Amino acid sequence: MDTKTKATLTLDGKSYDLPVHAPTLGPNVLDIRKLYADAGVFTYDPGFTSTASCESTITFIDGDKGELLHRGYSIDELAEHSHFLEVCYLLLYGELPTAAQLSDFEGRVTRHTMVHEQMHYFFRGFRRDSHPMATLVGVVGAMSAFYHDSLDINDPWQREVAAIRMIAKLPTIAAMAFKYSAGQPFVYPKNSLDYAGNFLHMCFAIPAEDYVVNPILSKALDRIMMLHADHEQNASTSTVRLAGSSGANPFACIAAGIACLWGPAHGGANQACLEMLREIGTVDRIPEFIARAKNKDDPFRLMGFGHRVYKNFDPRAKVMKESADEVLGLLGIENNPTLQVAKEMERIALEDDYFVSKKLYPNVDFYSGIILDAMGFPTSMFTPIFALSRTVGWISQWKEMIADKDQKIGRPRQLYVGEKHRKYVDVRHR
Ligand code: CMC
């Protein structure tokens, strides 16, 4: 931590010095850790809009520029030149791998893709019409009941095994959730396929026919996974860190992250966005929905628009839009009506005063659903695909937190505005 200067807070005539830490990138950070002990006051910041909850070296976002870096590498460059498992290595270990390190890592992930056979029976406890995210939360939480040899968070080797297990098994579990809801038999992973190709195989192969992975689709899916791999201290990542700060096991922490991701303001937006675009249906209905989004009395929001940090284009959305054009073109369905609605919606919104003044731009979820839909995924699988892609980010952040000597159990304070002391009144006298 590089402490360059200090700020002075004056309160009730007394002055308190607050160290100011200089980050490698981004705004300076006031250190208020001793504030309560020294001055007896809390800070108030619902939604953590001005609060840095940890020190991190993994991901950096410049919201004004619309820039996203993983370990210093821009997402545009990674999306163009890298692939998902290489980005996983980068996030987990801090450097791009050598060819030998990459091959060893891919081998380790591939060897862990199967799940404990008894997990197959565990699925049967769910209703067939369960949302795959509900199944995912339950089954990932249950991993701690199956993998007892990787629960000790104080053992670096066990932490490593848990990390590899989750990166390897999340696609298997997500595909099983999909197969279960479709009433089809589970498909075992195939280690000759790459990570994205194997996921497509587990989702779309059936015993009655041979399934050949379409390389256009597996490349596009790999890119979607890369674009979702990490996004610094967002709601689900902060949830994973908070859960982990109590010493909970890594499977329980990732299950907590998945539960948080499910909400429509976060990872659930990709499902909600495609459903919205379909509901709009035709370009002529866009103004009606734009008007609704602007109406303060209508809770409707343009899904796939806006972001807490980006006040410019989400760089992931740019890549995703190009990808949507490319994939639909290669599949010969470039006249897809949903894509037409999305593009026109983006055009109109970006010229509208409301969206311009509030700096609301398309985010990663705006175009991803269109690609996933073209691949044959139902909307209910969009958020599970986000979850399996984000798993590496959650684990990297969790591992960083465990190794951080400054990290304590997460325990925010509050601004209490309830009743003061009251005398208990017996029920007969109320
Ligand atoms: N449509 C219409 N108005 C919006 C939208 C939207 N999508 N997003 C924000 N606003 C307005 C909001 O009403 C508020 O207006 P005012 O200042 O007049 O009250 C202003 O913009 C600021 O919004 P906010 O809710 O205070 O901003 P936030 O940082 O708390 O919320 C957000 C960020 C992403 C939750 C929000 O923009 C939103 O709900 N977007 C739609 C859901 C979505 O696409 N989520 C995916 C986020 S990216 C994927 C991920 O990382 O999870």
β-strand percent reads: 5-15%
Radius of gyration: 23 Å
Query: Helix and strand string, N-terminal first?
Result: EEEHEEEHHHHHHHHHHHHHHHHH
Q: N-to-C terminal Cα separation, in Å?
A: 57 Å
| Continuous helix count | 18
What's the average pLDDT? 95
Q: Summarize the biggest pleated sheet.
A: 3 strands, antiparallel
Q: How many strand segments?
A: 6
* Hetero compounds: carboxymethyl coenzyme *A
Low-confidence stretches: none
Choose one word for the global shape: globular
Q: Helix/strand-derived class?
A: mainly alpha
Across the major sheet, the strand order is 1-2-3
| Share of helical residues | 40-55%
Fold and architecture overview:
The chain has helices at 35-39, 75-81, 84-93, 99-111, 119-123, 132-142, 156-182, 195-204, 215-228, 235-245, 250-261, 269-280, 286-294, 315-330, 337-351, 353-357, 365-375, 382-403, and strands at residues 2-11, 14-22, 29-30, 59-62, 67-70, 73-74. It is mostly helical and 430 residues long. The model has no long low-confidence stretch (mean pLDDT 95). The protein binds carboxymethyl coenzyme *A.
Quick description:
By secondary structure, the chain is mainly α. The chain has helices spanning 35-39, 75-81, 84-93, 99-111, 119-123, 132-142, 156-182, 195-204, 215-228, 235-245, 250-261, 269-280, 286-294, 315-330, 337-351, 353-357, 365-375, 382-403; strands at 2-11, 14-22, 29-30, 59-62, 67-70, 73-74.
